[in-house]
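User: Show me sequence and structure for the first protein, then do the same for the second.

Assistant: Starting with the first protein.
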Amino acid sequence: MGRAGGSLLAGMAIFLLAWTGTGWATDIQVTATVDKTTLSLEDSIQLSITVRGSQSAETPELPPLPDFRVISTGTSSSTQIINADIQVSLTFSYQLLPLKEGQFTLRPARVVVDGKTYSTEPIPLTVAAPRNTGRARNVEAFVETYVSNAKPFVNEQVVYTFKLYRKADAQNLNLDMPYDQQYFRKMDLGKSKRYTQVINGVEYEIHELSVALFPIKPGRVELPPALLEMDLLYRSRQGFPGRSPFDPFFDDPFFGSRSKIEHKVLRSKPISLE
């Protein structure tokens, strides 16, 4: 190899050594953030726990969250090079669904990074009642549950029915109809039904699902609220400022339409059986 090639390699080696020696940040920072601190029972919280300065962190140890349903939504990593400085981070994401109203504090989560434990700061949360509920209001969506018999005998079939009423399109529906297995055995009653109904002059699309519950011992028991998580789609063909003359062509149903997505969590009322 010629002298010029050797000089070039030496220069690159010196540059890489300098970059490696000064570029990797040694400070570890662990933070917890949420997308909102005030919400209703129809909403959810996006919790992000971010580790900056390392990508070898262990899975966070979350604090007890008895008043929330916790769903892990994945992990993402990031590497950025800014002015020869390499910045790395690792983010753990969670979705929190509130189970009741009130004032809460999201206590610190703990994360182990390279054998050392780091803690996040507490976060205050406020959960309010749903803004609009029931068929008496002209809302985009609501749910109801009912039973065929609130005073059954032991082993007598009780039909437990869930109904979703919606005006907007919906996707990613996830329904949970909890019951106490110590008091009931369950049997499915086939596929869900779908039909329309006019309520107070408003037409709703209805999804109806029924299951059979059989009491296995006497006593008073409560069916907890059914929980439906979904995304509502609001489609619009209205004009927008600054639109191109070609926009109406692309607003044709063949090409789809502009839409807004709203994540919703709907709950029914609990039902008491005797």
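Switching to the second protein now.
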Amino acid sequence: MNIKEFHYFHELVKYKNFSQVASFFNVSQPTITMAIKRLETELEVKLFVRDRSHKQLVVTPSGEQLDRHVTQILNELDVMKKELSRISSEKILFGLPPIIGTYYFPHVAPELLRAGLIDKLDIFESGSNEMLTYILDGTLDLALIGSITPIVDAKLDAKIFDRTHFKIAVSENHPLAKRNSVDFKELAREKFIILDDRFIHSIAFSKMCHANQFRPQIIHRSNDVHILKAMIKENMGISFLTELALPPEPGIKVLDIADDNQPEFLLSIVYRHSHVLTKLQQRLIEILPQKINL
């Protein structure tokens, strides 16, 4: 068996049509047929059967099982190609969620500059939820990722180096601005402006609402913290944000959440377990947790 046969097989599972797969790869139909027969002979299993009544190609249980393995193999090959192509460039594809980039990264940038790493970073911005996918598929080498529980995945190495709390942000003109803390259940009738599902905030927020047994009134979701803050200042609603994103700022009052059981915002350095770190990447990992200090 070879990689090309795996590609043929995987697409045949998807399309269930020999002619369509042959056209996709720009080869003859017998080429696809013979490739599948070779796989079946070598593995000593039947991968497809013909449903005569419906004139359809059906994937057998053995075929479904093989496709799960083939999918992993092809994904790993894709990751391998991406990683190998970047080794000689001495560039680090570095994931940085917007909140972490805005409020954490400036504290570490001077040390990265002194270490000669700043110009080696190709920074990619997205929410923490999306960032994990980009690490796993090889799009990124390393990332700083926010989570509410430790990241546990056999394919990843994740090292927590900071923890912060979530807070409630309200306008200075909001009635709650007279207080320093609030029980989350008191917010059941409030209008919320929150970050969208690309951010870990949405998961933490849902957990808090579920724990306090209310369905929140969400009037706006955004991927831009600055837009959220502008709307808060106009007293259009309140928000749920990590304290990392809430340094002292005119027009906004930050309240502690008084609940005993509440999620934390965990900050981790994450990379693939199979990834062999270059010297530059190792140096970056050494600097980040030591120098970030608000």
